[in-house]
Amino acid sequence: MDVRFLTSSAIERHRVDDVKPLLAREDGFVWVDIPQWDDTAGAMLRDLFGFHPMALKACQERHYTPSVHAYSDHTFLVLHSPEVQQAGHVHLIELNQFIAARYLVTVHGPVNPVVPLEAALKDTRGVMARVESGRFHPRSPSELSYALISAMVRRQSDLIAAVADKIATIEQVVMTDPLRNPEPLLEEMFLIRHELLTVRTMAAQARESCARLLALPQLVPSEYRPWIEDLVDQFDRLTSIGDGEREFLVGVIDLYQTRVSTKMTVAMERLAVLAAITLPVTAIASVAGMNVIVNQNTHVVWLIVLLVLMAVISGVLLRWTKRQGWW
Same domain for 106 and 153? Predict the structure, then answer.
């Protein structure tokens, strides 16, 4: 558990036991970051901060949709950022925030065991590094929360940019590849689409949660409203970009499916040509062969006549299929 006290000019490190006296200070605000839930964290949030039991329960469980709850003296916000560990599977990194006038408490929600803890702490550690280096001086918990959510937006934006690069590469392959082995390419396109849909849905849901904050003017500080409006705009733009990339990917998939369907149609036409040429020849050979070629004697004249007849029929059929444009 990391405890910081932020003033207008400095950031102080403290122990967990110092949280109560820090809350009484008026020259700054407290930031408590809880990387993993445990009994100590639960007891502090329940006894010292007095958070609602439902909010505490929400911090211990995994959630797949964001949410916002307003209380008399603080706001509880649940948002997600993406983490890709393997192609096509986007893990949701949950960050719970308790935002008040004198403190910000961030609780990292449970994550899939395959996701390393450092990936879950990327956003908070990044903002904390900016504060400690002096590049960012938050004046209030609301401004610090805004910075954390903006970091989550950047992670979503980076994932969409990475997906856009993959789509551009896939488009070149679809345009130039002979498509002799289409299954791996098709699977890759659908995995990319799943990544894009996940992050786009994540951005759209986060946008609605931030918009909900705007509908609570009596509980949300007025100084926080411009930042919330900016977050709503960021998520709107991210959603729009995601929609554009999705439409482009759908176009690439349609082009791919059209090329594959065209190849199959051409192959079926050629098979039809082969069937049309070989069918009468096979019929003549099967019926007349047993009568022209026998074990004791072969009718040479009739054999020559049949071979010429089969060649003429094949030639006529080839010419007819050529005029039909089948080959």
Answer: yes
For residue 212, CA distances in Å to 64, 73, 326 come to 18, 17, 62
pLDDT tens per residue across span 27-62: 899 999 999 898 889 999 999 999 999 999 999 988
Q: Is 80 helix (H, G, I), strand (E, B) or coil?
A: strand
Sheet with 74-86, edge to edge strand ranges: 11-14, 2-7, 28-34, 103-108, 89-100, 74-86, 67-70
Positions of E strands within 87-201: 89-100, 103-108
Same domain, yes or no, for 93 and 164? yes
Is 271's pLDDT higher than 80?
no
* CATH assignment at residue 65: 3.30.460.20
Q: At which residue do the structure tokens 């400690």 appear?
A: 132
Give the DSSP H or E segment for 157: helix 141-176
252 with 282, same domain: the answer is: no
pLDDT of residue 73: 85
> How many angstroms separate the most distant Cα atoms in the chain?
118
116-125 pLDDT tens trace = 888 889 999 9
pLDDT of 240 above 90: yes
Give the residue numbers spanning the domain of 286. Answer: 269-323
Report the C-alpha gap between 36 and 118 in whole angstroms: 11
